[in-house]
Write a structure and sequence with these properties.
There is one protein chain. The chain is of the alpha/beta class. About 30% of the residues lie in helices and about 30% in strands. Strand 12 and strand 13 form a beta hairpin. The radius of gyration is 18 Å and the shape is globular.
C-alpha cells in the first residue's frame, strides 16, 4: 500500500488519547490540532527552499525561506474542518477550500453536496484533510473533483485509516501520497474503522 504511517511517539500517544471513549470534545479537538501540526511538519518536509539575504542585529547573512510555493488546504466537510487550524498554525498563508461529501448510509458511496475552491487551483499544491479514511469513497471523490478543476499536486492527510480505504485511494489515485497517524485493522459491517475512534465529526463537534 502507498501509505506513510507516522510513528513518532508524540503522535502515537495523542492518537491513543483520542481513541478513548472518555475523551470529551474539547480535548478531542485540541489533540487533533496537535496531531495535525505534528503531521504537517512531516508532510511539508519536501517544500523547496531558496536563498534570501536578511540583516540580523549584528550582520547581513544569507538564510533560507520557502521558495514561493503556493499551498492549499482542502478539508472534506465536516470532520476535515477539525484539521484546518493545525495546518494554518504552520502555514498561515495557505488558502482554504472546502469540499462537502457525505456517505450514503445504505450504499456507503460518497455524495457531493458542496465545493468552494481557490481560483488559482492549477498553481497550488493541495493537502486534503479528513480524520477518517474508511471506505475511501469520499476521499477519492474529493481528489477526483480537485483534479477535474485543474489540481496537479495533491496529498491526502488522515488521522486513522482502514486498509480498505487506502486500497481505494491507491487504486483511483496512485499519484496521491497518503499520510496517516494510524493504519487500523479493518472496517466493520457498517463501514466504520476498527478499532478506530468512533465518528470523528460527532466527537469534534459534540453531536450524535
Amino acid at each position: 500500500m502507498n501509505v506513510n504511517v507516522m510513528t513518532h511517539p508524540l503522535i502515537q500517544h495523542k492518537v491513543t488519547l483520542m481513541r478513548d471513549v472518555n475523551t470529551g470534545s474539547k480535548d478531542f479537538r485540541q489533540l487533533l490540532d496537535e496531531i495535525t501540526m505534528l503531521m504537517g511538519y512531516e508532510i511539508t518536509r519536501t517544500l523547496p527552499l531558496e536563498d534570501v539575504e536578511v540583516e540580523t542585529p549584528l550582520v547581513k547573512m544569507t538564510g533560507k525561506q520557502i521558495a514561493g510555493k503556493k499551498l492549499g488546504i482542502i478539508p472534506i466537510l465536516r470532520a476535515g474542518l477539525g484539521m484546518v487550524n493545525g495546518m494554518l498554525s504552520l502555514i498561515p498563508t495557505a488558502k482554504v477550500g472546502h469540499v462537502g461529501m457525505y456517505r450514503d448510509p445504505e450504499t456507503l458511496q460518497p455524495v457531493e453536496y458542496y465545493s468552494k475552491l481557490p481560483s488559482d487551483i492549477e498553481e497550488r499544491d493541495f493537502i486534503v484533510t479528513d480524520p477518517m479514511l474508511a471506505t475511501g469513497g469520499s476521499a477519492s471523490a474529493a481528489i477526483t473533483l480537485l483534479k477535474e478543476k485543474g489540481a496537479k499536486h495533491i496529498k491526502l492527510m488522515c488521522l486513522v485509516a482502514a486498509p480498505e480505504g487506502v486500497e481505494v485511494v491507491n487504486r483511483d489515485h496512485p499519484d496521491v501520497p497518503i499520510y496517516v497517524a494510524a493504519l487500523d485493522e479493518k472496517l466493520n459491517d457498517h463501514g466504520y474503522i476498527l478499532p478506530g475512534l468512533g465518528d470523528a465529526g460527532d466527537r469534534i463537534f459534540g453531536t450524535k
